[in-house]
Every structure is written in C-alpha cells, then in structure tokens.
Specification:
Bound molecules: zinc ion
CATH superfamily of the largest domain: Alkaline Phosphatase, subunit A
Structural class: alpha/beta
Protein name: Putative phosphohydrolase or phosphomutase, AlkP superfamily
GO molecular function: hydrolase activity
Pfam family, one: Phosphodiest
CATH topology of the largest domain: Alkaline Phosphatase, subunit A
Number of helices: 14
Strand order of the largest sheet: 2-19-9-1-8-5-6-7
Number of domains: 2
Helix content: 25-40%
Oligomer: single chain
Number of strands: 19
Keywords: Hydrolase
Organism: Caldithrix abyssi DSM 13497
Distance between the termini: 21 Å
C-alpha cells in the first residue's frame, strides 16, 4: 500500500510574524513554541493591497492579483458602475484545491477565503467569510446542514463588535472553539492528502483590540492575551491528532498594526474637485456625475473616469490621463493627517501594484483601456492608515471603533517537514511550495 503523503495547513488570518514570536517568547503560546523548535519560521510579505480576499486568492493560485483577478472586497463593473463582491467565480486561475483534485488527491478546506461559491472537488470545501449562507457555502451541500446542526458559524457579527466589545470577544472565542472542533472532527474522518483550516477570529480580534493590547488598556489587553493562549491550546489539541512529525504549514496573509486614521479618499477627491455626485448623499457609484475625474474603491484604489471604459467617462486616454495620474500622485504624496504626519508611502500605477507579469515593458505607455478592473492608481499607505472607499463621509480623516489595520509587511510562514527550496518572499510563493510537495 502506498503511504499517503499528507500536508496540513493552518491559516491564522492577519497574525504578524513579530506578534507570533513575541507571544511565544513571553510564554503565551507553548504549543506553537514547541512546534517552532522543529520548524523553520519565515517573515513574508502579503500582496498589494494586503487584504484577505486578494491575498488568499494569491495563495490559492500562485498568481499576483493582476493575474488571478481578485482586486478587492468590492469591485465595480465600469460599463454600468454596479458594485459586486468578487468571489471564487471571478478567479482567472485554477486553485490548489482544483489542481490537487485533478490528480486524485483528497482535499479538505475549511473557512479559507475565496472558496465561495465552492466548486466540485475531490473532498470537502466549507467556504469562508465571502459566503454568508452555510447551505450554499459547502461542497458537498449536505455538509452545510451538518455544520449548521453542530452550531458552526462562518464569522462573528462585526456590527456587534462596534457596539459591545465584551460580547464580541466572547463570540470570537465561541466561534473559534467550534471551528477547531470541526477541524478535529473532519481530520479524524479522513484520510486526506491536503487538509487546510483557516482562523478568521485573529483578524477580527486585531481590528477591535489592537490598541488596547499595545497600550495595555484593561480589561481588553487581558482579553487579547487570553485569546492567544486559547488559540494556542486549541492548536495544541489539534496538533496532538497529527503524527509526530507530520508535514505542516502555519501561515498568515498580512501583518497588523495600530490604526492611526481611516482616510476617506472619496471625501478628499471631492474636496479637491475630482469627484462629483448627482445627488447628496449618493446611494452608490451610479450617482457619479459626469464631471467626475476620479473616484476610489476600498482600499486606496483610484479609478479615473476614463472615456471608453467608465459609463460616465470623460478623461481621454493619453496625455490627459497621464497628466491627471501624475498630478493626483503628487498631491497625495503631500497628504498629511491631522497631526501633520504623511499618510502615503507611495502611489503606484495599478498594473504595477497588482504585479502584472514582467513580459509587459512598463517603460512604454500602458493603455489603461486594456485593464477594466485594475485601478489606475494604487495607494501604498504609510503603516497605520486605512484608505476607505465610502462615498459620502463628512471628513477625510476619521477615528472609529476599529483600532487595528493591515500591513503589507510582517506576515509569517512556519514550515515543518516541507522545505522552501527557492525561498519564500510573499504569500504567492506558498502555492509553489505546496505544488512541489505534491509533485504536481
Ligand atoms: Zn482584516
């Protein structure tokens, strides 16, 4: 009988490399500490923009966002200016789950972003937070009813988090416990070649509790540490089920830092004469006025109102387009927060930020009409600034209930019994590592 070559992957959304090391060093994560002794730990980058759906799509496909097609949480159809939420249907590349299924590997995936709607695989898929309905979010569909009966939930109620941090925290713990219970259950009911589980609660905790953790504001600082101790004990319980030296990956998709300000970019575009609406407040993008030169979608994506691409297009491709891109970039580089701190590290052309393949010579003129969904400009913020896409904000700079935000740097990858031969620079490279492991 052939011995099964199994790989287990646990994804901890938004856990920074530095935080993981610190939690281990301070004794909050003994099980991960033990694992670290027999593993290699890498600091890796995310992708631009460093948000979960874009980054996990790169993990699944080994492609940069320009190639896999997921460019943000929300997307617009330029011809109609309708909004939609891009999901697995919009991926332009095959995923690991599909590739492994094609070669007859048994796969299991629980809660990993960009698996909704689930496709047919050789195994089981339980979608993550882009699908809110368990019944439609699993393959095979019967798994949805099973999970529902077990009290499994896809995500915590973020709205509740804004109102009641205590309640939200306890919800996070409950949901995470149930997620691990299901991971243990399905692992036991294998066998699997590829087994992956994703924990979203880390990201959720960080958005609401990061400042309390950093500034040691009680009781929430204690909550933060308790959460990591709980996570470690759940991981420990799960690791116990695995063979002693089973090949294992642990990783995150982006780092985290204290949120200084949310930046309402559309407000700034309005105040600077680039953005106009037909009515106030606008209901959606369809209320864009034809006088508009540029508008923005979360996070920090700027689209020019380009003739021939956008429904209300007025900016001519060519000299006018180039001039506006350059002017906007220069102005944004000067943007300061209320404390006089710069908020933009760099403004890049969309195709550059989204990593178009190098076969395109970026020194020659790139026709923006070729790219429908890639923004014309992408803001790479200074750490701690989150460029929002709300259409109608009263101020450019705001502070809300959220106090943590994502970073491009400082994600992590832990590997045991699976060695990256060519190094790992960012989350996109993990795809190749897994493909090599299975020799596909
Ligand atoms: Zn997040």
């Amino acid at each position: 009988m052939n011995e099964r070559k199994q790989l287990v992957v646990i994804a901890l959304d938004g856990v920074p490399f530095s935080l993981l090391k610190k939690m281990v060093a301070e004794g909050n994560m003994p099980h991960v500490g033990k694992l670290l002794k027999e593993s290699a730990l890498f600091k890796i980058d995310s992708v631009h923009p460093p948000i979960s759906s874009v980054a996990w799509a790169s993990f699944w496909t080994g492609a940069k966002p320009a190639e896999h097609g997921i460019t943000g949480f929300i997307e617009r159809d330029p011809g109609t200016l309708e909004w939609f939420v891009p999901n697995a249907k919009h991926l332009k590349k095959k995923t690991l789950l599909q590739l492994l299924s094609e070669v007859g590997k048994r796969v299991f995936s629980l809660n990993v972003p960009v698996t909704y709607p689930p496709t047919k695989v050789n195994g089981i898929v339980v979608s993550g937070f882009l699908g809110s309905d368990l019944a439609k979010g699993t393959y095979p569909p019967a798994i949805g009813s099973f999970l529902k009966a077990k009290g499994y939930r896809i995500d915590a109620d973020v709205e509740a988090g804004k109102k009641d941090p205590d309640k939200f925290y306890h919800q996070l713990i409950e949901i995470m416990e149930k997620r691990f219970e299901m991971l243990r259950y399905f692992y036991e009911n294998g066998p699997w070649d590829f087994f992956m589980g994703h924990i979203m609660e880390t990201d959720r905790l960080h958005h609401f509790f990061w400042r309390y953790y950093e500034e040691r504001v009680e009781p929430y600082s204690a909550y933060f540490f308790n959460f990591y101790q709980k996570l470690d004990s759940l991981l420990g319980q799960f690791f116990k089920q695995l063979p002693d030296d089973a090949p294992l990956l642990l990783l995150s998709d982006h780092g985290f830092t204290r949120l200084k300000y949310e930046v309402n970019l559309n407000r700034w575009l309005m105040e600077n004469g680039y953005l106009y609406f037909k009515q106030a407040p606008p209901q959606n993008l369809k209320d864009l006025h034809e006088f508009t030169t540029a508008y923005s979608l979360y996070p920090g994506r700027i689209y020019l109102n380009l003739k021939g691409r956008e429904k209300t297009g007025k900016v001519q491709a060519g000299i006018e387009y180039e001039t506006i891109c350059n002017e906007l970039s220069a102005k944004l580089m000067q943007l300061k927060d209320p404390n006089g701190k710069p908020v933009v590290q760099k403004v890049v052309r969309g195709y550059e930020g989204y990593g178009l393949p190098k076969t395109l010579d970026h020194q020659i003129f790139v026709d923006p009409l070729q790219f429908k969904n890639i923004p014309d400009l992408l803001i790479l913020p200074e750490e701690g600034y989150d460029f929002k896409g709300v259409l109608w904000a009263k101020k450019t700079f705001e502070q809300t209930m959220f106090n943590g935000t994502h970073t491009y740097n400082n994600a992590f990858l832990l590997t045991r019994k699976i060695t990256p031969k060519n190094g790992v620079k960012d989350i996109t490279d993990v795809f190749g590592l897994i493909k090599n492991f299975f020799e596909i």
